[in-house]
Amino acid sequence: MVVNQQSEDDVDRLFRALADATRRDIVTRVLVAEFSVSGLAEHYAMSFAAVQKHVAVLERAHLVTKEKRGREQIVRGRVDGVQRARRLLDDYEGIWRRRVDRIGDILAEGAGDDD
Amino acid sequence: MTVISSEKDAEALHFRLVAEFDAGVERVWRIWVDRTQLQRWWGPPMWPATFETYEFEEGGRAAYFMTGPDGEKARGWWRITAVVPPRLLTFVDGFADEHGDPVPDMGETTATVTLEDVGGRTRMTMTTSFRSLEQLEQMVEMGMEEGVRAALGQVDALLAEDASA
């Protein structure tokens, strides 16, 4: 049986992040173009600090990246990169699962007195 | 023999696999130590691995190639960084050119393997971190039957660039 706690946590974070209308709106915007946090804040009737918190939640859910540029914090959508990384890690896991199967076959051949 | 868990961190490009085998630690250690056994499981069935050099000791080097269905060869190297029999092995893993020399532009990864006794069975934990998405992609291609050819093409392309530079 396979326990994949890491991706379950990721999925939880993803759904929590997207459960909020403001955060969904931020993701939609930063997927199209990069925004500074202050630039984003202009679009919402809330404080800079509140927008910054939303961005932090999205960052933890791997939906956006935040990067300092001068005095600004630039936010970008990062769905593609993370999805690609996930897919590749799944493939890499497959490689090792097949290796583990082959190791198992070798071990099953006997008491291991073949060297 | 079962894979009991895996951890994949797409943000940190970190991978961990835990497997348990119905064999003692000393026995499982030998699938790493013994070149003949290693060759039987490292490469995919259609791309079997041949280790030409295998110095199983701290600071030791390994050079291997995987042979494809049409006789093409994909080459890799290891540098063994820690050996604590029969519990710990760490090595750096990278791509090599046709002479077995490392291709530095392709990057390298460090793998950590630990073995522990769990009531007569053996738990093997394998951990790797990748430095970039591109590197992860190359490692995946090199390890997958359908991908080795693509990885080989990348090595050729890089070497061609170096030659013309």
Describe this structure in words.
The complex is a heterodimer of chains A (115) and B (165). Chain A is an alpha+beta fold. Chain A has a single domain, classed as Arc Repressor Mutant, subunit A. Chain A contains five helices and three strands, in the order ααβααββα. In chain A, strand 2 and strand 3 form a beta hairpin. In chain A, helix 2 packs across helix 4. Chain A is elongated and about 70 Å long. The two termini of chain A are 32 Å apart. With 165 residues, chain B is of the alpha+beta class. Chain B has one domain: START domain (Alpha-D-Glucose-1,6-Bisphosphate, Chain A, domain 4), CATH 3.30.530.20. Chain B is 27% helix and 42% strand. Chain B has four helices and eight strands, in the order ββααββββββαα. Chain B has an eight-stranded antiparallel sheet. The radius of gyration of chain B is 16 Å and the shape is globular. The model of chain B has no long low-confidence stretch (mean pLDDT 86). The chains are: A alpha+beta (115), B alpha+beta (165). At the A-B interface, helix 1 and helix 5 of A face strand 1, strand 2, helix 1, helix 2 and strand 8 of B.
Low-confidence spans of chain A: pLDDT under 50, at least 5 residues? none
Tell me how many strands of chain A there are: 3
Within the largest sheet of chain A, what's the order of strands?
1-3-2
> What's the assembly state of these chains?
heterodimer
- Provide the residue-averaged pLDDT of chain B: 86
Percentage of residues in helical conformation of chain B: 25-40%
The CATH superfamily title of chain B: START domain
CATH architecture of chain B: 2-Layer Sandwich
The ordered string of helix (H) and strand (E) elements of chain B is: EEHHEEEEEEHH
Q: Tell me the number of helical segments of chain A per DSSP (H or I, 4 or more residues long).
A: 5
Broad structural category of chain A: alpha+beta
